[in-house]
């Protein structure tokens, strides 16, 4: 009796298990029926003969290719005709010569498919554009040559100025060295002559030749010619300004005419200024 009861218990548990499994299977089938299967969209077939094209002499170009015959093809909102085999040609032109290239985007659309874009780069090879480029290049070349010439002239000028500056520095250095040597040789006489020359030049507005004569004159300072020459060579006097001062004196105090003043300034019996110094004085007499 106990064996029979145990066997009945096992059968009962097994029955419950079968029912539970059946319910789970039914639930899974119901969920599968509720979730629709989403199909992945395909790409539209679109091919272009050339991705990079040059225009003709008139700036026109023809783009050729093939697309799914059932697709709609357009570029920049303009519809492109497609034949029954899907072949097409699309013409476009450059609007003006300001553009060197344009990118034409062709778009294919078909229901149930992914949209397809294809970029074609078109280069402007028109006659007018090439002429424009040639003119611009010629102008740029001319400008570059002009700049190069200006730079060369500037460099040459700078080199000359540098050479002149160095030459002047060398001249001054040599002059100073010679003056120092002469000063040592002349001693006190040279120093005294220098002081006198400075006084004649600054207080009496004398010319270089006039100062020299005054320094060496037996009726003047009676310095040696070497000391006098050393003195006039080493004083810093603006002889143009001295000539002008003398000219104004002749004009104001003696009412002399400009040409008479010029003669007096340059005369060996007068002021003994150089011709250039006298010309400067007359030119600025009424400033």
From TrEMBL:
One Pfam entry for this protein is: DUF4969
Task: Write down the PROSITE patterns for this protein, in alphabetical order.
Answer: PROKAR_LIPOPROTEIN
Give the start-end ranges of region Disordered.
Answer: 160-188
Q: Where is the DUF4969 domain?
A: 2-83
Q: Which UniProt keywords apply?
A: Signal
Q: Which residues are the signal sequence here?
A: 1-20
Q: Which domain of life is it from?
A: Bacteria
Instruction: Identify the residues that the record assigns to the Putative host cell surface-exposed lipoprotein Ltp-like HTH region domain, covering every copy.
Output: 191-235, 238-285
Name listed for the protein in its UniProt record: DUF4969 domain-containing protein
Q: Which organism is it from?
A: Listeria booriae
């Amino acid at each position: 009796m106990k064996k029979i009861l145990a066997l009945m218990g096992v059968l009962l548990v097994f029955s419950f298990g079968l029912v539970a499994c059946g319910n789970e299977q039914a639930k899974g089938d119901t969920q599968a029926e509720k979730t629709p299967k989403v199909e992945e969209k395909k790409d539209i077939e679109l091919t272009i003969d050339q991705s990079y094209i040059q225009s003709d002499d008139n700036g026109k170009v023809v783009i050729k290719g093939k697309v799914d015959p059932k697709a709609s093809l357009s570029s920049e909102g303009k519809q492109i005709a497609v034949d029954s085999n899907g072949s097409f040609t699309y013409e476009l032109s450059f609007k003006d010569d300001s553009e060197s290239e344009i990118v034409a985007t062709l778009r294919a659309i078909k229901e149930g498919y992914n949209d397809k874009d294809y970029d074609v780069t078109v280069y402007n090879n028109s006659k007018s554009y090439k002429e424009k480029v040639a003119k611009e290049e010629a102008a740029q070349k001319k400008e570059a040559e002009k700049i190069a010439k200006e730079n060369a002239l500037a460099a040459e000028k700078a080199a000359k100025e540098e050479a002149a500056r160095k030459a002047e520095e060398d001249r001054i250095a040599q002059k100073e060295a010679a003056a120092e040597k002469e000063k040592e040789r002349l001693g006190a006489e040279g120093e005294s002559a220098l002081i006198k020359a400075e006084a004649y030049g600054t207080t009496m507005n004398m010319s270089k030749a006039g100062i020299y004569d005054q320094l060496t004159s037996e009726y003047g300072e009676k310095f040696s010619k070497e000391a006098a020459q050393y003195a006039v060579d080493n004083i810093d006097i603006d002889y143009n300004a001295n000539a002008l001062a003398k000219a104004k004196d002749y004009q104001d105090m003696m009412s002399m005419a400009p040409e008479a003043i010029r003669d007096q300034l340059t005369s060996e019996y007068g002021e003994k200024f150089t011709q250039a110094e006298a010309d400067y004085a007359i030119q600025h007499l009424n400033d």
